[in-house]
Each structure stands twice: as C-alpha cells, then as structure tokens.
Amino acid sequence: MRIPGRIKVGGVPFEIILRNGTNGESTSYGSCNAGAQKIWVSEAVGRQQQETTLVHEVLEAINTLYELGLEHTQISCLETALYAFIVDNPEVFKK
User: Fold this and answer.
1) Which residues of 39-62 are buried (b: 16+ CB within 10 A; e: fewer)?
2) 4-61: per-residue pLDDT in tens?
3) Positive or negative, the Cα torsion across 46, 48, 51, 57?
4) CA 58 to each of CA 5, 74: distance values in angstroms, whole numbers, following the listed order
5) Which domains does the chain have, with CATH numbers?
6) What SS3 class is residue 50?
7) Core-most of 23, 24, 37, 42, by most CB within 10 Å?
8) The whole model's pTM is what?
9) Taking Cα atoms as reference points, which of 24, 93, 87, 26 lies closest to residue 55?
10) What pLDDT is recorded for position 88?
C-alpha cells in the first residue's frame, strides 16, 4: 500500500502529512482535521501501522464529512476489517 501526499475523500481533497512522532499523544499514530482537509500519520511507527493509521483517518474523515456519528471503537473495527480486505485482495484494486 502506498501513502500518497494527497487523496480525495468523498470528492474532497486531503493533504497527507507524515509527521515525526505522535503529536504528544502516546497512543495516537495519526489524526484528521476534515475542516482543514489534512490527515497526519506518524513516521515514528512501522510501515504497517502507518498504513492502518491512514485507513483509520480516512474513516474518520468519512465519518465527519457524512455526519455518520460512528463511535471511535466502530471506526477502529472498520479500520481493521477494511485494511485486511485491502491487503488480502490486491487484485481488486488493479486496473
């Protein structure tokens, strides 16, 4: 999985920023600010954790943009399931 510098979520462009550290939070490997259209992912963790963090933050963006009202635990469960689907089925995403 590649972590690009920009993505679109629901047609809204987001900048992906790899940052050093965890932004002072011991358990946060990323964050999303849908209003600023930015997603931050920590460089201080391994590649797989960066990838799952990106999936998590995209789900956070979807939750905010579409006012879904998902709880953080629901987003975390979806992150795990969606990441596994992406990794286990790469042929689905080939053009």
Assistant:
1) bbbbeebeeeebbbbbbbbbbbbb
2) 999 999 999 999 999 986 555 556 899 999 999 999 999 999 999 999 999 999 999 9
3) negative
4) 13, 13
5) 6-88 (3.30.2010)
6) helix
7) 42
8) 0.91
9) 87
10) 96
59 CB-side CA count, 13 A: 22
Place of tokens 């600023």: 36
Structure tokens at 37: 């259209």
Q: How far is CA 11 from CA 14, 26, 65, 85, 88, in A?
A: 9, 32, 10, 22, 26
Token digits of residue 66: 């579409």
Return d(Cα 45, Cα 61) in angstroms, integer.
Answer: 21
Tokens 């579409």 correspond to 66
